[in-house]
């Protein structure tokens, strides 16, 4: 089981903050550090270059596909791969209609088909191949000459069709709002034994687990309105994203994290919640659960 730390980009005011957060993750013993694309915030691939003292792996979880042509994504990814010394794992996904159409004014059509075509263009470009492609969404005739090793590619696959795409064209999935049972009974069988199953987890070490979940339910209310997330919550029999929050004593948190490992998750991305002292305590604790 590999353990990653979510390195927040929203709210940051300088690139130095990213570097400091990555250095802290490395010092804590995390295997990886992850960023994502927040509306109005920093570019998730560009900030990786501001993390010279970082864990062995740096990933994006995730970069939306619709706003970036796959040639642009490949160019940015290989640039980040070169600048980070080969640490990149590229996580991408179609995002949500609320973001793509309502915020950006772009059509959000056939996300599984769009993602399939995207990968059919992206992956050979990352390998340095000349791509000549004509599909519904993309027509490409080009090659990149950036000298960098091909990064692993993960996609935010939750539904059956997206998981098929992940199994056939990606190295695995990045999943949110799931519990261990869904990993074992749904994600792992759909993806196969060799796939990476990266699960984002919200963690709090607290004596008020109910209070943490109630606060999370308020802050994450929008998740219930996003169809892909609502579908995975329903598939897991959950009322909302707060049901996936791991909160309690150190012993309770450790037991729940180990359940993910037993279920077949290969990686966890930890997002600690609470005040700064509580967040630091949780971030310090989680790597020790799997140490040795």
Indicate the mean pLDDT.
95
Output the radius of gyration.
18 Å
List the total number of helices. 10
* Terminal residue distance: 11 Å
- Detail the poorly predicted runs: none
* Subunit arrangement of the protein: single chain
Biggest sheet features: 10 strands, parallel
Instruction: Give the percentage of residues in beta strands.
Output: 15-25%
What is the percent of helical residues?
40-55%
Q: Give the SSE string.
A: EHEEEHEHHEEEHEHEHHEHEH
> How many DSSP-defined strands?
12
Global geometry: globular
> Structural class of the helices, strands and pairings?
alpha/beta
Organism: Amycolatopsis magusensis
Domain Luciferase-like: 11-266
Keywords: Oxidoreductase
Protein name: F420-dependent oxidoreductase-like protein
Description:
The structure is a single chain. This protein has helices at residues 15-28, 70-83, 97-103, 111-126, 160-169, 180-191, 209-219, 227-235, 250-263, 276-289; strands at 2-6, 32-35, 57-60, 63-64, 88-93, 131-134, 139-142, 153-155, 172-175, 196-205, 246-248, 267-272. With 292 residues, the protein is α/β, with parallel strands linked by helices. The protein has a domain at 191-292. The strands form 2 sheets. Strands 1, 2, 3, 4, 5, 8, 9, 10, 11 and 12 form a 10-stranded parallel beta sheet that branches. It has a two-stranded antiparallel sheet with strand order 6-7. Helix 4 runs parallel beside helix 5 (160-169) and helix 6 packs parallel to helix 9 (250-263). The longest helix is centred in the middle third of the chain and has 16 residues, at 111-126. The radius of gyration is 18 Å and the shape is globular.
């Amino acid at each position: 089981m590999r353990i990653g730390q979510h390195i927040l980009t929203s709210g940051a005011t300088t690139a130095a903050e990213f570097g400091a957060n990555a250095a802290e993750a490395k010092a804590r013993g995390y295997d990886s550090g992850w960023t994502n694309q927040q509306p109005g915030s920093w570019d998730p691939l560009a900030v990786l270059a501001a993390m010279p003292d970082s864990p062995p792996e740096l990933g994006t979880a995730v970069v939306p596909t619709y706003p970036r042509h796959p040639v642009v994504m490949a160019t940015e990814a290989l640039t980040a791969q070169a600048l980070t010394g080969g640490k990149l794992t590229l996580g991408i996904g179609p995002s949500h209609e609320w973001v793509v159409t309502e915020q950006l004014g772009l059509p959000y059509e056939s996300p599984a088909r769009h993602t399939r075509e995207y990968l059919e263009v992206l992956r050979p470009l990352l390998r340095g191949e000349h791509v000549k492609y004509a599909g519904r969404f993309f027509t490409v005739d080009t090659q990149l000459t950036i000298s960098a090793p091909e990064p692993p590619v993960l996609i935010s696959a939750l539904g059956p069709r997206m998981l098929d795409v992940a199994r056939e064209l990606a190295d695995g999935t990045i999943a949110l709002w799931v519990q261990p049972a869904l990993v074992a009974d749904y994600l792992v069988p759909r993806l196969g034994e060799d796939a990476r199953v990266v699960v984002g987890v919200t963690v709090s070490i607290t004596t008020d687990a109910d209070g943490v979940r109630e606060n999370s339910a308020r802050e994450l209310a929008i998740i219930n309105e996003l169809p892909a997330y609502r579908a995975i919550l329903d598939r897991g029999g959950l009322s909302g994203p707060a049901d996936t929050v791991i909160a309690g004593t150190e012993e309770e948190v450790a037991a729940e994290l180990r359940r993910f490992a037993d279920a077949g998750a290969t990686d966890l991305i930890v997002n600690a919640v609470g005040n700064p002292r509580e967040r630091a305590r949780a971030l310090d604790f989680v790597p020790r659960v799997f140490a040795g």
